[in-house]
Design goal:
alpha/beta
């Protein structure tokens, strides 16, 4: 049985005057997964999320969420019913208490999970009788996340969800995200915290200057990406190592560093055809992969 992606875009683009914020973005986010959405500041992450949710209109291209078109106003309503979104600057009703805003939000969602509500209220120590306006930034973030998680949505879209949380709060957040995914909710979240993405994500999408530069399984990345450091007796011709799977070559004199997404064995074999002093092959983490993708040429 073919399962539709929870998010799919085709040449999605957004311009603000002469500035291209998102350019021909084509990506697919699998159901039943936790997908990290990475990029530098200004890369287009929040703009992409706002287009997906119908908050701003694309300049070109389109996409779907849960099979609904993001460009159709009627279908956009269906998206909002089935998707929970927590923004980087979540707006809440400041005049309500925590208990009041929980009851208010609960009244709109027939599938509300009281067990999730009670568990998060307890573990996050949210003060039920305190007004929202008196909460710290971290507590407001936890409250917004609780209101999203307890809805039991089909898809969670989170924009910098750990912003404002202390280390314990971050741990609780990551555990809650994994629990949500384990119960069938797909999670798509943007973050600057690569270590957090690496801990919980199944897949990673990297956007740079409005363009998608990576969409891959983290398991595949761990399995196939390697850094190969070679010291030659005499400087070789770099062109000999430009083979499929080679992502980047950095050479200085007799030293060469090769980043590969495959064919590591062939690179090593070609190196051994030369006067070589040493070869070291090592796996690399998501941080190194990210920096390579966003590095300026």
């Amino acid at each position: 049985m073919n399962i539709l992606p929870v998010i799919e875009t085709h040449d999605l683009s957004k311009r603000f005057g002469n500035t291209s914020a998102v350019c021909n973005l084509t990506m697919s986010v699998a159901a039943g997964s936790i997908t990290g959405f990475l990029g530098l500041n200004g890369a287009g992450k929040t703009t992409t999320i706002k287009m997906l949710l119908g908050m701003i209109s694309p300049t070109g291209g389109g996409g779907t969420i849960l099979g609904y078109s993001i460009r159709d106003p009627a279908e956009s309503l269906a998206i909002r019913r089935r998707v929970a979104y927590v923004s980087e600057s979540q707006r809440l009703y400041d005049y309500m208490t925590v208990a009041q805003i929980v009851r208010f939000t609960k009244s709109f969602h027939s599938g509300w999970r009281s067990d999730v509500e009670e568990s998060l209220l307890r573990s996050w120590a949210l003060p039920l009788n305190q007004k929202v306006k008196a909460l710290s930034k971290g507590m407001r973030r936890k409250l917004a996340l609780l209101l999203a998680f307890a809805r039991k949505p089909e898809l969670l879209i989170l924009d910098e969800p750990s912003d404002g949380l202390d280390p314990v709060g971050v741990e609780q957040l990551l555990e809650a995200m994994v629990a949500q995914c384990g119960e069938g909710t797909a999670v798509f979240f943007s973050s600057h915290q690569i270590a957090e993405v690496e801990r919980v994500a199944d897949r990673v999408c990297i956007i740079h200057k409005g363009q998608l530069v990576m969409n891959a399984s983290l398991d595949d990345l761990r399995e196939s990406y390697r850094q190969i450091d070679i010291v030659f007796g005499a400087a070789p011709n770099e062109a000999e190592f430009q083979i499929p799977g080679v992502e980047r070559i950095q050479a200085q004199g007799c030293q060469m560093r090769v980043l590969v997404s495959g064919n590591a064995e062939q690179v090593v074999a070609r190196a051994r055809m030369h006067d070589v002093n040493s070869i070291e092959v090592a796996p690399i983490g998501l941080r190194e992969m990210f920096l390579d993708r966003v590095k300026e040429n």
